[in-house]
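Exam revision sheet. Question 4 asks you to relate a sequence to its structure. Input first:
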Amino acid sequence: MLAETTAFTIDGISARPVRVEVDVQRGLPNFQIVGLPDTAVREARERVRAALVNCGFEFPLKRITANLAPADLRKVGPGLDLALAAALLGAAGEIPADRLDGWAFAGELALDGTLRPVRGALAMAEAARAYGNTGIVVPPANGGEAALAHGVDVRTIAGAAELRQLSEGVFPGERPVPVDLSRGSSLPDMRDLRGQDHFRRALEISAAGGHGLLVIGPPGAGKSLGARRVASILPPLGADEALEVARIASVSGGGLSAISGVRPFRAPHHTVTPAGLVGGGTPPRPGEITLAHRGVLFLDEICEFRRSSLEALREPMETGEVNIVRAGGRQTLPCAFTLVAAANPCPCGRGEEDPACDCNPAAVRRYRAVLSGALADRIDINLAVRQPGAEAMSGPPGEASAEIRGRVIAARFTMEERYGSARTNATATAAEVAGFETDADAARLLSQAHSTGRMSGRAHDRTLRVARTIADLEDAARIGEDHMAAALQMRRREA
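Answer key, structure tokens:
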């Protein structure tokens, strides 16, 4: 007897449909899974057998063949366990096979038949809707995220034993409540950053326009402290953005704790590999830049990173997506992030102008050479900071994040009116940059800097984008001379 169900396998950050066909025939007892399964899928034979027996079902001692179609698509992960179990029960006559029509199943089976969560439940539910399935059955731990996909019936069951209800004419499971994407989490406040007015202003401009920021200074100057508070001044995610970020968090396996309405903040360690940073592996999985989509990627001690890892950022920073090409296929993953990086001026951290610095010039050059000129040219804002004085450290706290966030939200609203939803000045095209209204004095200042400061064409346009953001924060219709001067100053690394 033959029975079929639908399952899904994760491919990048999306789900691909898999038709699970199980055939039970007379012959020597054997359970074979075909259709390019990985090790986890092949091992599902033992999990399914133990789970069904421990749930009180009679496991057929016959020749069992499970085919996963399409046969040329590699099936990965334990998420196909429940679909295999349901199709096997239908093929063995334990439950009516026709009751499985139109439904998709996702979940990993424990040996006692209970269901364990799988990654990518939201992507699977959206795929079930897109491919015309009536609904999808998922583990209880995945119910909240899967229910975010509107237009498809999502059910949760605790274990394979509940499939017996199909014989009673009732489709099992409960309808879960979608997770609340409007909920936030407590974030550190910008009030903690005392002094450093120039740094605070740069962080505000970076958050408003989505501009990359590189800050250089000695240890203890507040570089990391300020960078880790950028998320607290970013505007809330829109409905579509929140769903997009939730889908990526679901595929990454972070669970419900990783799904919220807060923009992501990722801070990978400097030992991260190029594949870990931009994505890769077999099959390809999202890297840190995709996990930071619509949020912030913070690279602390950027000069300690591998140069190969940093160089891999160049194209994604320009395009907002990363293309991973492998022999088995090609993946395009989104990565529209804001880069915030921090570095010491030299290996010892004190800086060459400090008499206590004992770094030789060759060591300083090697240290700084990790950050290539091509990558530095793609970072819109460069600034140097010094140690805050004792008076600043003992003085009143700085401006609160809520006040700064209000100005950032107002500037973002102006940008969305200019470009459309979810776009900022940092993403403006060359044609849009050429259309910026600029005062004659501001244009002359930029022209002088371009002709005398060895400014590249990319730096020319990026300076205009930063100047436009400064003008938006001041609610100015045109880029003035003061806006341009501030933007040019932030292209320099000198203190």
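Marking note for examiners. Residues 467 and 486 are 7 Å apart (CA to CA).
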